[in-house]
Write a structure and sequence with these properties.
- The protein is an alpha/beta fold and 425 residues long.
- It folds into two domains: 39 residues; 354 residues, Alpha-Beta Barrel (TIM Barrel).
- The chain is 43% helix and 16% strand.
- The strands form six sheets. The chain has an eight-stranded parallel beta sheet. The protein has a three-stranded antiparallel beta sheet with strand order 9-11-10, with no helix packed on it.
- Helix 1 runs antiparallel to helix 2.
- The protein starts with a helix and ends in a 10-residue tail after the last strand.
């Protein structure tokens, strides 16, 4: 810059006539200001820095898209060995995934060492041998973060527990029932029971588990699903009936478990608890994302009393992943077009959960690719797959072609759409 000014001044004194000098001085002064601004400007933020090997894509040049996968302990051993977990996280990162949802509350146990669980039902961690003498969640967080992955623990079982669990045996008064007194609900071949989400002691236990996770681990968020509600045929236990009568001048709950007012009363109570949980999480860590992965609203509300549409309107959800597990493409697309889905998409990062297969259900990779395309065409925040093993390990198709397909789907890295950071509708 100094050399430039010296050159300009030299030219100025070289001019002989006073009028020429004045005009020339004005021109040089203007030119020097322009040059100064140009030389002081920073390089553009969105830039590809080239090396001898390949371009390095900076964070500011990446697109934003949620690319997630659920890690569960059902039909999968990915969480049962550190080596399995590390290998999975490494491969997911290589394929440009950016968030994982490892289950932490399942089958009546925590999958991490929990003092809350120990104090309530005497078991610190799931008795699965692969979870002993290690802290699976601590490993998932440290190894995931080391690879640039967000880690959002999944509170999978919610208020549900196995009928023969220590939790159910030690606290039978916590269980709710149907009108006929039955407490068992079949889930496949398994007998399940449900804790009453309306009891203060149950609420305290569930909230304490959640707060323990948020306090103890450097997680990016915590996720709930429909199991954070209650099957609508339940709620006829003595405590809940007494509470309903107290608020309805002694009138008993309707015998029809789908009665609109009875549905709403119970759903509103669960919403009140969701508010407590949200506040408790934020009291510990303002940056902890509250994520919900429900079924479509009609099913969640009518069958599980989980009114996520209202939760979203109240600001209690910061990451929404709607489970649209449909093989029929026309049905799949219909679910993406409901008004509550469109409204949520305008407020918060709203992604679509896609089924990649089950132990006894094969999902072709072409179906997965087609559904991802439809989600992208409608400008959703991204996709998450249920579940890890069926991405390429449990499949009728060969592993390598399926992995190649995901590599093509996610050919470049993408940022996780964090509502609390730089996400915009």
């Amino acid at each position: 810059m100094n050399r430039f000014l010296q050159w300009c001044i030299g030219l100025f004194w070289f001019s002989r006539q006073r009028s020429q000098r004045r005009a020339f001085l004005a021109a040089i002064f203007t030119l020097s200001l322009v040059a100064g601004v140009m030389f002081s400007l920073p390089l553009p933020a969105q830039i590809v820095i080239k090396t001898r090997q390949q371009p390095i894509i900076t964070a500011s040049t990446q697109s934003t898209e949620l690319r997630g996968v659920w890690l569960t302990n059902i039909d999968s051993d990915v969480l049962f060995k550190r080596e399995n977990l590390t290998n999975a996280l490494t491969r997911l990162r290589q394929l440009n995934f950016n968030v994982v949802y490892p289950t932490v509350w399942n089958w009546g146990y925590t999958l991490y060492p929990s003092q809350v669980a120990k104090s309530v039902f005497g078991v610190t961690v799931d008795p699965e041998p692969g979870l002993h003498k290690r802290d699976m969640l601590k490993e998932a967080v440290s190894e995931g973060h080391a690879r640039g992955l967000k880690v959002i623990p999944w509170f999978e079982f919610g208020f549900m527990a196995p009928a023969d669990s220590q939790l159910a045996k030690r606290h039978p008064q916590w269980l709710t029932n149907r009108l006929d007194g039955g407490k068992i609900k079949k889930e496949g071949i398994h007998d399940r029971v449900w804790l009453s989400p309306f009891r203060p002691d149950v609420q305290e236990f569930i909230k304490d588990l959640i707060v323990e996770i948020v306090q103890k681990y450097d997680i990016d968020g915590i996720q709930f699903d429909d199991h954070f509600g209650l099957p609508s045929e339940f709620g006829y236990d003595s405590y809940t009936v007494a509470l309903y009568k107290k608020e309805h001048n002694g009138k008993a709950p309707p015998k029809d478990n789908k009665n609109p007012e009875w549905l709403k009363w119970r759903a509103d109570k669960i919403t009140d608890f969701m508010k407590q949980v949200f506040s408790a999480i934020k009291a510990v860590d303002q940056n902890c994302i509250v994520s919900v992965a429900p079924n479509p609203q009609r099913f969640s509300y009518e069958y599980f009393l989980a009114d996520w549409e209202r939760w979203e309107r109240m600001g209690l959800i910061e990451d929404l992943v709607i489970q649209v597990y449909r093989d029929d493409m026309s049905v799949f697309l219909k679910e993406l077009q409901y008004p509550n889905v469109i409204a949520a998409k305008k407020h918060i990062p709203t992604s679509i959960g896609i089924i990649s297969g089950l132990k006894n259900k094969h999902v072709p990779i072409q179906q997965i690719k087609n559904q991802v395309k439809q989600v992208r065409d409608r400008n959703f925040a991204g996709v998450s797959f249920f579940f890890y093993e069926t991405l390429w390990n449990i499949s009728k198709e060969a592993s390598q072609p399926r992995q190649q397909a995901f590599k093509e789907l996610f050919s470049q890295p993408a940022k996780y759409p964090n509502l609390l950071a730089d996400w915009k509708s």
